[in-house]
Amino acid sequence: MDLHDRTVFITGSTAGVGASAARRLAARGARVLLHGRDEKRGEALLTDIAAAGGAAELISTDLSSLAAVRDLAEAVRERAPALDALVLNAGLARAPRETTAEGYERTFAVNHLAHFLLAHLLLDTLRAAAADREARIVVVASNAHRRADLRLDRVADPAGYDGWRAYANSKLANVLFAREAARRWADHGVTVNALHPGVLATRIWDRNRRPLWFIARLFKVFMESPDVGGAAVERLVAEPALGSVTGQYFDVMERAEPSLPGHHERLQAELWERSAGWVGLAD
């Protein structure tokens, strides 16, 4: 697909999968709105994209704050009244447990709640683009969702916290959100798909204390490059044949079935309603 008249916004795009996807989409002509917490890395990526002849802009904010997410959405709306693709890629994993200013467990807050709110706040910009062609949302999830034990009554204050389980739960939430959004927004011309980008050597576990930090370092030598995930994101954003595909789960380049809970429509709807309350949306 020729992307020269398209605008794409990617959260968590100053490193890893997001940075790879940003470079790839900018190389195809897209105007890419970058997001990240580290302005230094963001500026370096802007320089790389510009040197390759691409167009990009950087918006820096911390997704662990819902107030900051609202400011981020407003900044995107100012730059892109019509948004062709939204890639919900930012993610983290924390051990031991951390909480946000609003009191939510940080991994769930960033990986799910921030993206749930952001997608709602940018829906009208996606619908504006969809007036002329389809608009796309790509939710970067993980096969880690297959290890989840998501109990919605314990999300705000989970007992017996485990960093790996918290990450898995947030990734199941990504899958549930993508499938419910695909259903609810089907009439808006906006497709929504979830993606496992691969088992990749990213920095997501680097800020954790042992043993997660040690395990992540040990197994990085067996992991693939983040560019594998970047190529998968690029495909879901730009492949013409996927323009009408929605509500699906992709394992890198292939369609796959999520875990059994990922198919559970009642759980999808319940997560949606609870999430709307948690982030302060009427919907």
Got a strand count? 8
Which residues form runs of ≥5 with pLDDT under 50? 218-222
The arrangement of helices and strands along the chain is: EHEHEHEHHEHEHHEEH
Note the beta-strand portion. 5-15%
**Can you count the helices?**
9
Structural class of the secondary structure composition?
alpha/beta
Global Rg? 17 Å
Q: Share of helix among residues?
A: 40-55%
Mean pLDDT: 90
Strand order of the largest sheet: 3-2-1-4-5-6-7-8
Major sheet description: 8 strands, mixed
**Span between termini:** 34 Å
Shape: globular
List keywords for this structure.
alpha/beta, 8-stranded mixed beta sheet, 8 strands
Overview of the molecule:
The chain is of the alpha/beta class and 283 residues long. 43% of the residues lie in helices and 14% in strands. The protein has 9 helices and 8 strands. It has an 8-stranded mixed β-sheet, with helices on both faces. The model is unreliable at 218-222 (pLDDT under 50).
Summarize the structure.
This protein has helices at residues 16-27, 39-51, 66-79, 106-121, 123-130, 163-184, 212-219, 226-238, 265-279; strands at residues 7-10, 31-36, 55-60, 85-88, 135-140, 190-196, 249-251, 254-256. By secondary structure, the protein is α/β, with parallel strands linked by helices.
